[in-house]
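User: Some background: our group keeps a shared notebook of sequences we're curious about, and every so often someone picks one and asks for a predicted structure to add to the entry. Today it's my turn. The entry only has the sequence so far, pasted here. Could you supply the structure so I can complete it?
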Amino acid sequence: MRPELTSVSPGVVRVSWPVELELAKAEELARSVRAATREAFGNGTTRVEAYVDPDDRPGQRVATLAGLRKEGIARGAADGRDRIVYALLADDEPADHPVGFRAMLNSLLPRKRAIGQLLLRDPDDRVLLCQLTYKSDFDLPGGVVEVGESPRLAVAREVEEELGLVLDAGQLLLADWLPPWSGWDDALCLVFDGGVHDPAVVESFVRQEREIRSAGFYTLDETREHCADFTARRIEAALTSIGSPGAGYTESGRQVF
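Assistant: Of course. Here's the predicted structure to add to the notebook entry:
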């Protein structure tokens, strides 16, 4: 059983195989795909890719055993149906090398979005909230953690970008899991302690006007009024963790045990 190689653009070939494949035959076919990939690279190809149906489990196993790395989903790529995209570049380490093997496995594992937020308070236990330009409800300062970035450093970076406030994040107070919602994938929100500050600190803020309409300290009642319900629950849960030896855990702001 030999895979078929089709040129799709200069330096790029697509490898394919029969879709009606028994799972027991996957390993044998994967060896042929590996050989065909090496041959293609030897002939000057820079990228070998495969499109596999999400329901084709044997085909996915072939791509994995052949050492191709999962890149994502090409939506509507074939007859209006989605396809999983696997590929290997000529300068990638092959899967029989430890680095290449780890890279291949890493491409298969789920990746979860992380959000870092900072909980700042004033002496009256009011909480600093930002009124955002891109949604109606208020939220804690912070933002999405970049790939390869420490969550603790990410929240400090975001607060400096959003408010011009240079501040190290303190203790982790809460890990809050956010389920998928309204087109968003699930995410893990990490709330760090930002300490207690004089209310006048807001006068020193240099707002990132593209994202932050205003910022100020609010009571818990005002927080419940201005924030989404899950955000208000998260803030209250984070407040209860202040001074605790470890961080709390919630799901959409709710205690689960």
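Suggested note for the entry: The longest strand covers residues 69-78. The radius of gyration is 25 Å.
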